[in-house]
């Protein structure tokens, strides 16, 4: 199975600054979905950041992905990257987690 990565996004600027580049951020994430390496993403509740789950070649690739995110490029968020090995998973994501 592929290792997965949970990317925790924490906003460092007020929400009105986040909202100004939200469409760019989501368009950037869409490229990851289109390429097949992102599984799910969305805002935290309360809205202090977000969470992105996907698979990358390694942690360096996950870091590189975050460094091209419009949030990073506009200095409005920081990222914590957690790599984990999926042991159990729902049948609906079987293809996503398998090598």
Automatic annotation (TrEMBL):
SUPFAM superfamilies: Dimeric alpha+beta barrel. InterPro entries: Dimeric_a/b-barrel (IPR011008), YCII (IPR005545). It holds the Pfam family YCII. Gene3D superfamilies: Dimeric alpha+beta barrel. Coiled coil: none annotated. The keyword Lipid metabolism does not apply. GO terms for molecular function: hydrolase activity. Keywords: Hydrolase. Residues 5-85 form the YCII-related domain. Belongs to the YciI family. This is GTP cyclohydrolase. It comes from Helicobacter equorum. The lineage of its organism: Bacteria, Pseudomonadati, Campylobacterota, Epsilonproteobacteria, Campylobacterales.
């Amino acid at each position: 199975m592929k290792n997965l990565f949970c990317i925790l996004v924490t906003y460092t600027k007020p929400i009105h600054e986040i909202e100004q580049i939200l469409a760019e951020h989501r368009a950037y994430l869409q490229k990851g979905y289109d390429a097949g390496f992102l599984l799910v993403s969305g805002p935290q509740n309360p809205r202090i950041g977000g969470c992105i789950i996907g698979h990358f070649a390694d942690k360096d690739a996950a870091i590189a992905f975050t460094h091209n995110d419009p949030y990073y490029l506009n200095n409005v968020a920081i990222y914590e990257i957690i790599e984990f090995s999926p042991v159990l998973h729902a049948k609906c994501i079987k293809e996503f987690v398998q090598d």
